Amino acid sequence: MTALLIFAAFALPAAWYFWRDHKLNTPSMQWPALKSILGLTYEANPPRLGGAWNGRKVAIETVEGGVTVTAWLNAETSLRVECGPKDVVTQRAGMLVPDALTPAVTAFRDKLLARCSDKNAGPLVFDATMQSRLADLPAVDFVGEQFRVVWRVPVVRDPNDTEALLGALCAIADGLESFPKSGAMPNAQTKRS
Fold first, then answer.
1. Lowest mean pLDDT: which of 8-22, 119-133, 156-170?
2. CATH of residue 87
3. Number of domains making up the chain
């Protein structure tokens, strides 16, 4: 009987821990709770959150190896921006990073590398406030071009982290909209997909 009680004393907390971990790391179990907090719509198969967040169309979707968070632009941008860990951005760019942004914030400089196709627009899209916001986030890896900004993260589960990510993502989208592609329609909603 004592052995059974000792086994139960260890097995129950371990089972609870593994169940909680499974629930937090499985989008189909976590995201239905996030939908009401973020004001988005949840679709079950495959797990996906979508809708308007602070007036901008966004989507949170599972992909192999993580999650993508996408914000669509209202008009096509002439810029291509990229930001992420230094090694990841450098690897995608090749041996040289010709369009790297010169960071103004030390925490950003130590952790991240940003690129912008227009050297003069880079400091406007990635101003000091944006650099501080990005440096404070746990995972930064996004590319913005044409009609959208796509951010790749390992997992989406905490409402506060997700709101901070969506806020930064929409701010980047706002910055990109300041540089429309010449001849772009003022409202490119029909091009969103």
1. 8-22
2. 3.30.1460
3. 1
Angle in degrees, 0-180, between the axes of helices 128-136 and 159-177, rounded to the nearest 10: 150
Environment class of residue 67 by beta-carbon count within 10 Å: exposed (0-12), middle (13-18) or buried (19+)? buried
Pairing relationship of beta strands 80-85 and 142-145 according to DSSP bridges: antiparallel
Q: H/E element holding 123? A: helix 122-125
Evaluate if residue 34 carries a pLDDT over 70.
yes
Query: Got the DSSP string for 79-117?
Result: -EEEEEEHHHHHHHH-S--TTB---SSHHHHHHEEEEES
Q: Which domain holds residue 122?
A: 27-191
pTM, whole model, 2 decimals? Answer: 0.74
Measured between alpha carbons, how far apart are the two ends of the chain, in Å?
A: 62
Tokens of 69: 């968070």
For 57-89, write each residue's pLDDT tens digit: 998 888 888 888 899 998 888 888 898 898 888
